Structure formats: C-alpha cells, structure tokens
Amino acid sequence: MAVHIRLARAGAKKRPYYRLVVTDHRSPRGGRFLENIGTFDPSKEAGLLSVKQDRLDFWRGRGAQPSETVVRLLKRLQKATAAGEAK
Fold first, then answer.
1. What is the distance between the alpha carbons of residues 54 and 71, in angstroms, rounded to a whole number?
2. Which tops the pLDDT comparison, 60 or 29?
3. Which of 6, 17, 37, 59 could bridge across to 11 with cysteines, CB 3.0–4.6 Å?
4. Taking 60 as the threshold, does the pLDDT of residue 87 lie above it?
5. pTM tops 0.85, yes or no
6. Annotated domain spans of the chain
7. Strands 3-12 vs 15-24: parallel, antiparallel or unpaired
8. Which residue has the higher pLDDT, 32 or 39?
9. How far apart are the first and last CA of the chain?
10. What is the largest CA-CA distance in the chain?
11. Are 34 and 3 in contact, with CB atoms under 8 Å apart?
12. 35-41 and 3-12 beta bridge pairing
C-alpha cells in the first residue's frame, strides 16, 4: 500500500480550508484517510499551516510520500520558523 501525505479540501464554497492527511494513494481527495496531521488555511495572511511534527516525522519514517504541494508548504513553514528563531 502506497501511503501519501496530501491536502484534503474542506470548508465552504469559495472559502477553502485544508486538512493535512495521511492516506492511501487510491483514496479520493476528500475521502478516507488514515490520520489527520495538520491544517492549512490559505485565507489567513501568508497561509496559516499547522502540523503535528511528531506525526509527520513518524509517517515519513514509515515511507509516506508527501505531495508536491505539501513539500512546498513544509519548506515555507521551515523558512518561517528559521526566520522567527533568528530574530
């Protein structure tokens, strides 16, 4: 079973809100998932991403592959935390 880390859309029409989920690659975007490990709200300034880092590390250690979008968001989060620590 190939496990992926990707975004699942939630929220109202024209007001998207995403959950960061671990899922089987065959499941639909808003379908079944194994675990919810974070959220992403693009309506907030610069897109607010919150992640359970320990669960993300656990699943990546088990071979879960993040989607391209998730990789991009995680890099942005790393830059923001590094800039916050440098101040």
1. 16
2. 60
3. 17
4. no
5. no
6. 3-86
7. antiparallel
8. 39
9. 43
10. 43
11. yes
12. unpaired
